[in-house]
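Quick one, T. Sequence first:
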Amino acid sequence: MAAKISEKKWICVFCASAAGASPLYLEAASELGRLIALRGCGLVYGGASVGAMGAVADAALAAGGEVVGVIPDVIREREIDHKGLTELHVVRTMHERKALLAERADAFVALPGGYGTLDEFIEVVTWAQLGIHAKPCVLVNLTVNGGGFFDGLLAFLDHCVEQGMIQAGNRGLVQVGPGAAEALELVERTWQARAEVPLHDVRLDEVIR
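Structure tokens:
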């Protein structure tokens, strides 16, 4: 797999190829992309030009940031790959996409999204639980219509702890911020608490084969 294109830190954003029912979703995606770039970090994401995925990439690029996209060939037409990225990697499968995103990232942030977003985020949290990586995993729990988008998911995770399905010590692997700025503060705080940012663990390559 490719090496990082610079020594800067890279933040992987998981989000939807849909725009969502509220304009707040695209606004949050744009704000996250802009702040990632302004903090001097790079953005790595799913490579699409539509929905929240397009918004986060466009905002990071407009703010002068580097953006790396990873998209499977079979869904390039559906998600419409972004033509203006710093790098675009076209891979064969969703498994390859997730593995390369994980390799390139120093942190993971999930915006509101559906099945794909949840799949990607929960998988990297699971890898953290297994000790495969120690990179921060943060949800942006955007408030829409009076409630947090991920409130139901967070309640479910608490239920899993209560029922003995998730160890209480692992519940904190999922960090939560109400907006883009707060999510990035959590990422940076986690980085600062460590001597160095964990790089790619080669065991990632094995667990997804």
